Amino acid sequence: MTSIFGSLNIGRVALSVQQTAINVTGHNIANVNTPGYTRQRVNMVSTSVQGYQNFAMGSGVAVDEIERIYDKFIQKQISTENQELGYWEGMNNYLERVEIVFNEASGFGISGAMDDFWNAWNDLTNNPSGYVERISLLSAGNTLTMTFNENHDSLAQLQDYISSDMAANIESINLKAGQIRELNQQILQTETSGSSANDLKDRRDLLVNDLAKMIDLKVSEDNNGNVNIYVGTGQPLVTGTDSWKLATTPNPASPNQDLVVWKSKDGSTIDITNNISGGKLKGMLDVRDNIISGYMDRMNDLAETIINRVNDLHASGDDLNGDPGGLFFSAPDANAPAKYMSVAITNTDLIAAAASGGGVGDNTTALSMAKLQNSMTMGGTATFGNFYQSLMSEVGNSVQYASNNLSNHTAMVDQLSNYRESISGVSLDEEMVNLVKFQHAYSAAAKLISVVDEMLDTLLRLA
Amino acid sequence: MTNSMSVSLQKKTQSLVDLSEKVSTGKKVLRPSDDPLGMARILDYRGTLSQIEQYMENINRGQTKIEVMEHVLSEVENHVINAKRIATDQSTAVLETRGTAASQIKNIFDQVLDLANSELQNNFLFGGNQTNARPFTRNADGIEGTADDYEVVYHGDNGEQKILIGKNSDVEISSNGNDIFTGDTISNGVNVFNTLKDLIEGLENPDTEAGTTQIRSQLDVLKTAQEQVNSVRTLNSGINQRLNSSKDYWSNFKGVMETQLSSVQDVDLTQAAVEFQKAQLVYETTVALANEMLQNTLLNFLK
Fold first, then answer.
1. Distance CA A97, CA A82 (A)
2. Are B181 and B116 in contact (CB under 8 A)?
3. Tens-digit pLDDT profile for residues A121-176
4. Domain limits of chain B?
5. Which CATH superfamily is domain B54-252 in?
6. Which residues numbered 29-48 in B keep a CB inside 8 Å of some CB on A?
7. Distances (CA, A) of A232 to A218, A256, B37
8. What ipTM score was computed for the predicted complex, to two decimals?
9. Contact call for residues A84 and A278 (beta carbons, < 8 A)
10. Taking the complete model, does pTM exceed 0.90, yes or no?
11. Which residue from A minimizes the CA distance to B171?
């Protein structure tokens, strides 16, 4: 015969297990809005013991484990997708600002300034010795050089700003890496002591996702359950026991383009700028070092050609004093003509509109200057205007491209998140049903105890 | 479910914002990324329009110059015709009026000299490219009664001024003192001032016989002089025609360019208004739907 106290025990155990189940359900409900939360589920298993006449009698229920409903594959996918998303976010954000620098929609950009400059030479052809026309030409020339200067400076400033933003992002990376390391240790402690560290793992996953958005990572989980993260060409960022930092450092070759380095424990650094291949940092690096630099190069090309062609023609003509023309534009820095170019003339008499040896009414040089506007000056295949237009087109295209990719990847991440939610997310409806289920089970177990209690009473009254 | 709802709402709001921006500014292309190819075309059209206006301005300036020259040269031609008439009269030896005739020719000479030194906007018209100094001066100081008074020296050059009326089209406007007045650069050219001078000498010649011969010999020269001046007028008139037709061409082309620019750049307001309304409707529907969907949970039914 089974012991009556055995039955009592079954009731007690049932109560306690259903209570646990209700607690877990309650925990799920409480965390319905917690980002990154994975719902937990109590897995119950029936227990048995050798008993009555060699039959295995059931002895109630026990909690097998509190399972985290977690799809590792989805997690990896989300991580990868976040990286792409971060990249396009970084790109799109800054490309939109690059677009604004050029200011073409308002008509006050380089395109308008160039048109006005050639028009001023045209006006000069109509009255080569005229004071008004000469002053207007100098004014148009100054506007042109200033526009180039400003555009160049704005782009350089943007590079600087990106470098600062990168530094801020890297601070954030370092912080998160530190937090992941702490979580690694906490999870290890919790699991070795026998319980499951579900909530800690959720937090860790969230941090890893955030990190993935910012920089490309190689993530691996080792046998102890630690998440190890590597960046660059294999430099560790977080391991089970330790975390490292990234930093930015000035670039000796270029003041606005800081480098990203990994700091080892002994103080030495490794430059990983060229080894970052994804995430927001990469997006920002691409904009700063490839795209903006490319645009600056093209602007410098344009400026240099204008300066050279104008100066050459100018030297071949005569000014109002009959002397050969001097420099029209001065460009002190050959590496960055657009940045420092200026008009070298302030005395209108020194503008050479005439041909060499022509009289003051001779407009040959001015005429040749005016014709430069439509000459194939850029590489023999494009006019100044065409060259600039194609640059603008490219700027527009790159923004559109980045914007489209951003939308696509945002949609992808959303979709993956939804899928993850459908597996790991808390559905209030389901939890309500569970609550009802466990509550009834609890009531039934309580009823069992009261029945056994009555039986005990009956037994005791026998005596 | 709430997530996808909020994403969807965000997208609809963004469309509304974009459309309202277009309607309020009237422009389809506010930045290169709105339409990259369109942006390039807009810049191109703007550049072309700017050039067209410049060419038309150049043409205007050129035409003003031609107009002034025409005015001056027609007077010069009239004076030469007058001189020839007087010479013709005097060539049949009417001796009493020789003195008066001489004064008249001297007058004509002075006026032609003045006309030859005409200015437009502080530039002398007939000095070629030497526009800042009088192209024609008397040798001496203009003291009445000396033969040398009527020796004119040309200080200008043979420069021609060109104006740009198209990408690579320049047009010369003949304003060269040598072509018109001294005849040095023309085959069979005559010097207008010299022939007038010779006429004066002939009229004042005390030896009336020799004087008459001198006068007679100037008749043909004066005719050639008149033709010389007239041919420049004809040339300029031809140039003016060309400028006129260029002006018309550019005027038409400008209209075409403006239409093209507008089609790429400007919003069709009616269409935009309709699209805005549509977007608004979609937004409101989405909001209503969200409202419906988010209301119902199991909690409503468990009580």
1. 23
2. yes
3. 999 999 998 999 999 999 999 999 999 999 999 999 999 999 999 999 999 999 99
4. 2-45+260-295, 54-252
5. f41 fragment of flagellin, N-terminal domain (1.20.1330.10)
6. 29-37, 39-40, 43-44, 46-47
7. 9, 22, 38
8. 0.84
9. yes
10. no
11. A367
